[in-house]
TrEMBL record:
The lineage of its organism: Bacteria, Pseudomonadati, Pseudomonadota, Alphaproteobacteria, Sphingomonadales. PANTHER family: DNA REPAIR PROTEIN RADA, DNA REPAIR PROTEIN RADA-LIKE PROTEIN. This is DNA repair protein RadA. It comes from Sphingomonas ginkgonis. Belongs to the RecA family. RadA subfamily. One of its GO terms (biological process) is recombinational repair. InterPro entries: AAA+_ATPase, DNA_repair_RadA, P-loop_NTPase, RecA_ATP-bd, Ribosomal_Su5_D2-typ_SF, Ribsml_uS5_D2-typ_fold_subgr, Rubredoxin_2. The middle region has homology to RecA with ATPase motifs including the RadA KNRFG motif, while the C-terminus is homologous to Lon protease. The keyword Flavoprotein does not apply. Plays a role in repairing double-strand DNA breaks, probably involving stabilizing or processing branched DNA or blocked replication forks. DNA-dependent ATPase involved in processing of recombination intermediates, plays a role in repairing DNA breaks. Stimulates the branch migration of RecA-mediated strand transfer reactions, allowing the 3' invading strand to extend heteroduplex DNA faster. Binds ssDNA in the presence of ADP but not other nucleotides, has ATPase activity that is stimulated by ssDNA and various branched DNA structures, but inhibited by SSB. Does not have RecA's homology-searching function. Keywords: ATP-binding, DNA damage, DNA repair, DNA-binding, Hydrolase, Metal-binding, Nucleotide-binding, Stress response, Zinc, Zinc-finger. ATP binds at residues 97-104. One of its GO terms (molecular function) is ATP binding.
Length: 454
């Protein structure tokens, strides 16, 4: 084989260049190209004699495929829901999420349920020792589940081990960034290592009908670290999302060859692991308790990711003529002043003798003007002591004229709110949406009338 020159692989997208460049020509990221050693030998080349012209494969008609793949229930309904109704044997899933969000916990729980139902499960941790995993299982009350554990990082060792026995129904690799394939040089976690390791494991899964779940950590900017290359190698990509300081976690399929991508699974992280939240609406309602005045829910977007955020306002009437305070946490104070001014000038409300406090719950920072309407609704609600009706989200930008203006991704926000159990939305005029009752406002005054029941 002719000796290949060294190559440079983008650690963000996997693009290959023959020389080093500051910017990746494929994905335009800066400083992501890293020199990587050459392929020592690909398993494909080892397995097949390319000189002989290959072997003839059987060509079948579309109509020959009659049986739908039978799915294995993970025993965790919210997980099944997110993946489209259960785990497909021989399928490969990537579970991506921030470090510490609960990926290992979720998969340990899924593994234990599948194993308890009689499916063989192998859980490979490249991050924790077997005893650590066992201790966690014990703490989760899963100590008795017949999951087989290993703490290994060598893909060859994993495949050798699995090849000697009955192939498991489910194989969990936690995480793919810790795996190492000796067919390729380079440290674990580099794009070429992640890709090579995944390729080997995927081939095993497809050959043996084993469902494979790969854990992938994501980087700060939200992409799956390095292996965006993995996304097209797997059948499904599941994102596990949430704020670490918050209890709630959302499992969302962003790609799924065997099901839709619009179902989500909702969990709460508790001291005994992840519990399922079958009715997400209840999640928000219990969190919010009885409807109180001064709160409104805004469907925010983080990148393309919708997150529902609660906005809280408190107005306190001052008896004396002292200058009232205005304080905003998680929201621009200049924009708060603007909304107050529009409410006074265009809608006849007076905040002049009231202190105003605005807070975005959970430590979120909002900079999206689409939240104007929700902020206004919280302020009006607090001032009038009339709660915003329950299960309502609100979004729309407010102009100085008092006009309510359309915002980006209205349909996406509505879809997310409906999915999370909200039944009503207060939106700018002209927006359409299915599955949720809309109240449309062309002007802020109409919103005030609605809230005050005028
Ligand atoms: P983990 O599953 O290790 O996250 P990941 O694999 O995504 O990195 O979970 C990390 C956090 O979850 C950990 O910081 C503590 C919390 N946790 C609980 O609150 N309750 C529990 O029962 C468990 C196991 C973890
Ligand atoms: Mg982990």
């Amino acid at each position: 084989m002719a000796k290949l020159k060294s190559r440079y692989v983008c650690q963000a997208c996997g693009g290959v260049s023959s020389r080093w460049q500051g910017q990746c020509p494929d994905c335009a990221e800066w400083n992501t190209l890293a020199q990587e050693a050459n392929v020592i030998g690909t398993p494909f080349a080892q397995k097949h004699d390319l000189q002989s012209g290959g072997r003839a494969v059987e060509l079948v008609g579309l109509d020959a495929v009659v049986a739908l793949p039978r799915r294995i229930s993970s025993g965790v309904a919210e997980f099944d829901r997110a993946v489209g109704g259960g785990i497909v044997p021989g399928s490969v899933m990537l579970l991506a999420g921030d470090p510490g969000i609960g990926k290992s916990t979720l998969l340990l729980q899924v593994s234990a349920r599948v194993a308890a139902a009689g499916g063989g499960v192998v859980y490979v941790s490249g991050e924790e020792a077997v005893d650590q995993v066992r201790l966690r299982a014990l703490r989760l009350g899963l100590g008795g589940a017949p999951v087989r554990l290993a703490s290994v990082t060598s893909v060859r060792d994993i495949l050798t081990t699995l090849g000697s026995g009955e192939p498991p129904a489910l194989l969990v690799i936690d995480s793919i960034q810790t795996m190492h394939s000796d067919l390729i040089e380079g440290a674990p976690g580099t794009v070429s290592q992640v890709r090579a390791s995944a390729q080997e494991l995927v081939r095993f899964a497809k050959d043996h009908g084993t469902a494979l779940i790969l854990v992938g950590h994501v980087t700060k900017d939200g992409s799956i670290a390095g292996p965006r290359v993995l996304e097209h190698m797997v059948d499904a990509v599941l994102n596990f999302e949430g704020e670490r300081s918050h209890q709630y976690r959302i499992l969302r399929a962003v790609k799924n060859r065997f099901g839709g991508t619009d179902e989500i699974g909702v969990f709460a992280m508790e001291s005994e692991g992840l519990s399922e939240v079958p009715n997400p609406s209840a999640l928000f309602l219990t969190q919010r308790g009885e409807p109180v005045s001064g709160t409104a829910v805004f469907p925010a977007l983080e990148g393309t990711r919708p997150v529902l955020v609660e906005i809280q306002a408190l107005t306190v009437r001052l008896a004396s003529g002292a200058t009232p305070r205005r304080s905003a946490v998680g929201w621009d104070s200049g924009r708060l002043a603007m909304i107050l001014a529009v409410l006074e000038a265009r809608c006849g409300l007076s905040f002049a003798s009231a202190e105003v406090y605005l807070n975005v719950a959970g430590g979120y920072r909002l900079s999206d003007p689409a939240a104007d309407i929700a902020v206004a609704a919280a302020l009006i609600s607090s001032l009038s002591e009339r709660p915003v009706p329950p299960e309502t989200v609100a979004f729309g930008e407010i102009a100085l004229s008092g006009e309510v203006r359309p915002v980006a991704h209205g349909a996406l926000r509505l879809k997310e709110a409906a999915k999370l159990g909200f039944s009503r939305a207060w939106v700018p005029a002209g927006l359409d949406g299915k599955g949720i009752e809309l109240a449309r406002f062309g002007n802020l005054r109409q919103l005030v009338d609605q809230l005050l029941g005028r």
